[in-house]
Amino acid sequence: MVPLLSSEHDILRYRACSVIEAFGPLPYQNEETYSSICFGLCSNMQHAKLAIQVKAVLALDYFLMNDTVKKMLSGDVRTIFNCILELLSKIELDSLVEALQSVSQTFSDQIEDYVEGIITQLKDSYVNYKKNFYENKQ
After folding, report:
1. Which of 54, 51, 74 is CA-nearest to residue 64?
2. N or C terminus: which one in the chain shows less Cβ crowding within 10 Å?
3. pLDDT, tens digit, for every residue of 12-46?
């Protein structure tokens, strides 16, 4: 499954992320497996296809339940937050907001630099939601 995270076929990347999301915090014998999955998910969070980006974020959210993964990704908090905030600026998806909340809780001691961006993005998403809601009512 891990090699599929870097497949040339987008559908295989998406499915690999889906499997990781479904089985998230399974214990692996080899720490290199955790590292490879973390690298693959972070790479896919920056993929050209929006669906793959979203699925990688959602998979990462579940994968973060593992303490080894938390330690490995503590240096990548900026990239993770930036990816999620950028996705939230492109689409409205409750599961992305939940992933943002989960990542914020996981790395609560490191989010100080991102609080303003998070609040601004959530405010903008809410305003867009209300705007679209009222436009669709008319």
Report:
1. 74
2. C
3. 999 999 999 988 767 778 888 888 999 999 999 99
